Amino acid sequence: MPDPIPLKITGIEAPLMNHEDALTWIDEKVISTLKREKPDFLLLPEKWIMQKYELNGADLDSVIDRFCRISDDFKTTIVPGSFSLSRDSKLFNSSPVIADGEVLGWQDKISLYRFERGVYSPGNEIRTFRSGKTTFSVAVCYDLDFPYFGKEAINKGARLLFNPSLIKKEYHEMWHIYVRGRSLENRIPVLSVNSATEPLSGGSIGTYMEEKEDGIILKSAEADEQSISYSVDYSGTAKIIEKRLAEDPGRYTLGNADEN
After folding, report:
1. Where are the domains of the chain?
2. C-beta separation of 162 from 78 below 8 A
3. CATH 3.60.110.10 fits 6-248, yes or no
């Protein structure tokens, strides 16, 4: 049996704000939270900065550079939520992943929600990222509602799933059902973080597994004072997920496998 690898994961329910306010908020709130919680991973909500960014543009660079510096200073892997990102003459809802002071890559939102379909282009790839010994994926908000994302992410090696979200309060109960359901069916811990701004109202939730002799217990943590923190046994989680994979007879692909 592998030695336990405890990971502390934290989410901040960032308010919706403009670009300039976000720069100040990052320098104050993000740093103070990292000093207090000392997490291995930090997650922020979907599109909490209400601005369209150009890839490699000065405004986006000023945000990403801050998170890179903070990641390096605190030795924390950061998923800074998602941004409206203009790339290759298209607009994507995309989430950067930052570790060791560098951008590991971006995860585009694949399943666009209602109004987004007329604004954004959908992503076409589920990516995994590796930080230290930890492999994980990022499902941007609505992507978590569908079984395909968790199944494919796990098949690609993910053992943690982060879900930057933007959910109105009236839908919180259903949102939490999705988070718990995707987590339980795949045996994968999920951290889903929402903005605290009304009418979104926070409500962030995190899940993890506790293995008993005769089964699995799904555990959850919820936000308090606009942040959420809890710990996951990564090596134990990986073992539980691999057992589940051996039991699951399904075959899952993104798109039409015959066309690839």
Report:
1. 6-248
2. no
3. yes
